[in-house]
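Attaching the record inline, Q. Sequence:
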Amino acid sequence: MHIAVVVTSDHLGGAERYLTRLYAETARRGAGATLVGRVPSWTDHGLDAVDPDLGPKWSRRTLPAGLLRLPAEARRTRDAVGRLRPDVIQMQYKREQIGFSRGLSRLAPVVWIEHGRWLSGPMGIALAAGYRRASRFADAIICVDERVAGDVRRITRHPHIEVIENAVDTVAQHPPSAADRQAARARLGLAADEPVALWIGRLHRNKLPVRAVEAAAAAGLRLLMVGDGPEREDVAAATRANGARFLGTVPDLTDVFWAADVYLFTSTGEGFPTVLLEAAAHGLPLVMNRGAGIGHLARAAGAWETGDDAGALAEGMRSALAAGASARDRSLAWARAHDTRPWADRHLSLFRSVARRAA
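Structure, as predicted:
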């Protein structure tokens, strides 16, 4: 089996790590994958890629120009995928799904993967009709959470939606030894005994990155801030004012996970964020903003779910640290229940199923 993965993103976030992890796992099972587009770190895993020169992901800022480029981008993508002769074509983001699904469905069965809740506000309204029409050309839609699947059902009424929850490699990602922890802190210039919180994500206002900085300062914790995005300047200013460390994009997250004592998640309106599993696999207790709407994940992980104001988040972090080993053990048990091996098998089984139906 060979899968064409039609995705373009210039940001290394949870969805991008999901993709590289998934196709590294399927490659180990004998199923090849070629990326048609761009994803940071994809080729670091020994995976093949071709770039049809697509513009940035759609957003409120990029959508007008993106619509003008779409016909030419669709032709280049169709030509690139056609040369690969794949058994299945997988797509991830709205530009690819809405703009390319019809043409690519003539080449091979199409599978969409959805990570997050449906877009709110004008952007969601603007894309809904096109998304609904394009979904007719998708043979299956994988959703990482039942609530994400509920959004997709509401918009598309698609007959084949399958929920496959996110996963983490709990062999490659694991809690540090005492020596590992101290070495990671030394590399990051952190004191051996200072309490450290960690935040990772796209620096977007919906993820409340500045609030995270304020909460860590209120809790008396050093915050490691990892990520990039449109709020970069505001976040950099906030970290300087509050004694936090702004690290920008960090390709290998091992040191920041090993150096931290608690993971802070402030996003709103999320699906099933991979980064929560990654933090849990490293043994970090989780503190989560109730406004993310993922209380079911917080309960399963034994996380602290709080209001989104800095004081409430700070109190949650203090409580998580006070719980000690029991909090770390709950996180780790939750991560191990979501290991990548059965997760990759389920994806591959679905890909093979749609390929057989099309044969």
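Residues 78 and 103 are 7 Å apart (CA to CA). The chain has a mean pLDDT of 94.

More tomorrow.
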